[in-house]
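Protocol step 4 of 6: structure prediction from sequence.
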Amino acid sequence: MPTDPVLVVHGGAWAIPDDMVESHLRGVRDALAAGWRVLKRGGAALDAIEEAVVIMEDDETFDAGRGSFLNRDGKVQMDALIMDGATLRAGGVGCVERVRNPVRAARKILSESPHVYFVGEGAERFAAEHGVELCKNEDLVIAREVERLREYQRETVAQGSSSAASSRSGKDGNDMFAPVISHDTVGAVALDRAGNVAAATSTGGTLNKAPGRLGDSSLIGCGCYADNLSAAVSTTGWGEPIMKLVLAKWTADRVSAGNLPEWAAQEAMNYLKQRLNGHGGIIALNARGQFGIAHNTPRMAWACKTVKKEEAGVERSAP
């Protein structure tokens, strides 16, 4: 029996300002439409999430692809992972600077390499050798992010030093990780007619990050995971706590143990907050088409579609 397809996407979890709500909603809806076109014609979940994430990488609203946050040196460095729940094959890239759509490169690794992960120049070389056109890093940098970095670094200097600011705040890290700072990592999970799930996550990382820093998004089991026997999961938010808890796999394991994705997603956010005072958002979907959407930030951009209904928002924590 064919399975009814389901698609869920997210576009970041933080205190999205009122004047940015509409651009976030438009972005996740556009991504949903692109992915659904694949599922509607009987295409694979992997293809659907790749197309959905590409739309958000190309949308300057989000911290992925063009328009990503700049690192401390003023460059875009991006990470992405895509995973197939049927085979557990995955492809990831880290710290790429010349790939317009990192999820495309990640998909090539999944499909055409015995390896799971490539970083930096090696990832770019693999992408180019497998038909992914490279671009200049400057092509990914936009004026909004140049100004955002300049302002952040100016404020850091005014505080004395980033380390002094960290000690005054009493937190592990500095205010670049505050919920009011944009965390617009994007992701998607899908179930196709064949009953397979898949997940993808893509990001430009955190503002003013040290060159070479990796977050959770492209690390298997941390920011992204998919297994037909449990769930497809994608996260967004403050990467370091999510990594420490291997949160995507933690959530999938809760589903495997018999919990609904709705419950597992909310519990993941509670666990993130209680254990490490972390913040973010998560989407989870099992092979029965049940899904969960949760966040512990003021807002999260999301959209979902089944054969019966389509929804999008920035406020809801669970279906």
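Step 5 (inspection) to follow. Confidence is low (pLDDT under 50) at residues 164-174.
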